[in-house]
Amino acid sequence: MIIRSKRDAFGHALMDHLRGEPVPIVVERDDGYVDVDDTRCYFAPYKSWPIHQRRALRYARGRVLDVGCGAGRHALHLQGRGLSVMGIDSSPLAVSVCRKRGLRQVRALAAEEVPRFRQPFDTILMLGNNLGLFGNRAKGRRLLARFSHITTDGARIIAETLDPYRAGNPVHIKYHQLNRQRGRMPGQIRIRLRYQLYIGAWFDYLFVSREELDAIVEGTRWHVVQILDSQDSRYVAVLEKSS
User: Fold this and answer.
1) What is the CATH number for 134?
2) 135-151 average pLDDT score
């Protein structure tokens, strides 16, 4: 379901950035842990992106669906390379930001709401840790099944996540233990975003190790063909669909 504008903290922050300066976004986890991000990364130029993200875009081909497109930086880069790109985001204001920045095809949709379009996609893009939109193991497998229906044979998913076990922060390790007690995956976090007076809805976001990703895709039409490492705990997985 699309987030209502009054709860669209993420979209309001992106729109204010577009109008002026970078602004802070508060990320609140359900155990009380709070982190602060800002909007600069969503508008960063290609040359400043991490190397593993730039390498990842070399795997994009054909008609591309950018899932969780944010302010559109990845979609706009691929559009500039001549690819046909559609961006989707559950934030209506993020979609407005993308349009203002020149993205030609963009819609307010959550990943699980993507319908079959007249033309199937050759690439699904989930950079910026957007493999996290899987939410949990079961939802991840449902999304993989949905993506199978809207893509061509041999299609690719280019998805970024981070390995939660490489963080080393005692606060996060304790949260992993709490998740295990609740029957959840250790890297399954429940968060909401806050900006000024705007407070978003709670949602699940998933970080997985490579072994956990292999377990999620097992038995689906997708398989991991490439891993692109970074200098920290983040990595990009390239998946391809079997015929």
Assistant:
1) 3.40.50.150
2) 97
